[in-house]
Amino acid sequence: MQWLTGGLRGKSEQKKQSSCRELRIATSGSHSVRSNVEVLRVDGAGSFSQNGRVRAAVFVPTTSTTIQFHAEQQKKSAPCSGRASSVHALQMFSPEDTKTLLDDAKRIGSSIGWVDRGVSLPTQGATPLGPFREPSESLPRAVHVLVQNLTKESQDLVHRAIRERLLPFARRQYPHLTAAFDKQPYPRPGNLFIVRYSAASQRPGGRGLKLHKDETALTFNLCLSHEEEFTGGGTYFPAASSDVDGILIRPKGGYCLVHDGNIKHAGNEVRSGDRFILVGFYNADGRDRAGEDEFFGPAAREAQLRAQLPQPVQTIYFTTAVASQRGGGGPGEGGAAEANGEGAYRADAEYADPPPPARGSVGCGGCGAAAAVLGLSAVAIQGPVSPKEAGAPGASSSAGAAAAPGGGGPPGGANAGACGGGGGGRDEPPLSDTYWRSHSPPHKSQTRGSAPATCMPTWMVVLQGRWRPATALAK
Ligand SMILES: O=C(O)CCC(=O)C(=O)O
Ligand SMILES: [Fe+2]
Question: What does this protein need as cofactor (predicted)?
């Protein structure tokens, strides 16, 4: 099995030089997911990297997934927003429907002509008409293939999926937009368009899209291409993880990413082939009124909501840990831990855990004590831990237990004391369960005497298997 360690940014800088090639990303299910680490070039991504080079954990959603990761540092005055740190992936189309759409888009695109995504600039400065620049006599033509240019059959497919899947999902996930959705139930047709990235393009804007914000209430980005039709690509989101610079989400055809348009992201360059995506911008400002009451009026919406079955969603807490090896050797090369099947762990015993966030508030979990973490890292721990280790004497928890996705709360409360102490006297959880707790360890030298300047999300730690006190882990 792979190893999970985490560490401070300082340590991780060293780690970046090392052979870390995999991460395990903690999930709400009983298993973490494995992710490759790739070095990408992302225009405009300067932090922690040079010349736009970033290290990204690559993730391909295969089920409805919420990815919760560290939001950008927010300004002091900015509201602390949990939603701002989430990206959702959901399947919108079957492979067959995706192919119908793609074939149609390709055909119509080649007759209308494709433009570089980076040229028609919805994301690079709003025009008076909003983020999407309308065609204009006086401007060079820079118009994407719109959904409304497609055949009636394709348009119906798209609108049905938006009405029946995307919007009910968005309403559930973004309750702060309820009033906006009631008033303006649908994205403006001009904000539903298809993008082609082509490895053959001579311009970077034709192969990818630099780091930007859409400045929309909601953005969705649906992959139309089959994964075998291109390499590279995917959407990159920076995340202040200690181990990588961000996450690259590479949805399969038919899967759609949904996110707050104020989260920074980039279109990773396509290295071979063509990548087609369908992008939708929803502005909750009354400008998107589509006038489609027949489909989107209150009665139609109620019928959709009734028809909507809850879908299982897994959550990924992206903060996490590098899979690296103990005792030398790269992943797959063996090592003590692989040999004995147990995880090796690193944690820094200097840190005290802040109170855990309530479940579901990870994005800004605890604007109080948990926010007192600046520039810090998470530790994720995974792997079976022997009962002896799990039962190490520990501090009792004063805070309530966070709910443990996948079953039960962490033993001894989510806040099991000062990184040590696994909560003595508790029942040991079964090995197959995943437990989690907040772990936002303020580094003493960084936080001593200074109030937190920003609201930071709370890191999550997942322990798969039994609890192991971090004090023990440090050894
Ligand atoms: O290529 C991507 O996945 C990102 C596209 C995007 O961000 C946009 O069109 O605004
Ligand atoms: Fe974008």
Answer: L-ascorbate
Q: What are phi and psi of 322, to 5 degrees?
A: -85, 135
**Residue 397 and residue 422: Cα distance in Å, rounded?**
9
- The DSSP annotation for 301-338 comes to HHHHHHHPPP---EEEEEEEEEE--SSS--TTS--HHH
User: Whose Cα sits closest to atom 2 in ligand 1?
Assistant: 267
d(CA 327, ligand 2 centre) in Å? 42
Q: Considering only CA atoms, which of 204, 318, 219, 320 is closest in space to residue 263?
A: 219
Dump pLDDT digits (tens) for 269-288.
999 999 999 999 998 765 54
1/23 Cα distance (integer angstroms): 12
CB 239 within 8 A of CB 281: no
pLDDT in tens, 109-166: 988 888 877 654 443 333 333 333 333 333 344 567 889 899 999 999 999 999 999 9
User: Which ligand 1 atom is at minimum distance from the Cα of 279?
Assistant: 9
Residue type, 163: R
The pLDDT assigned to 13 comes to 42
Query: What does 245-296 look like in DSSP terms, one character per residue?
Result: SEEEE-PPTTEEEEE-TTS-EEEPPEEEEEEEEEEEEE-TTSTT----HHHH
Query: Model's pTM, two decimal places?
Result: 0.59
Nearest CA to ligand 1 atom 9: 279
CATH of domain 40-44+53-71+84-120+140-286+309-317: 2.60.120.620
Q: Please, what is the Cα angle at 352 between 338 and 15, to 5 degrees?
A: 40
> Which strands sit side by side in the sheet containing 434-438, from one edge to the other?
381-382, 460-464, 434-438
d(CA 231, CA 327): 34
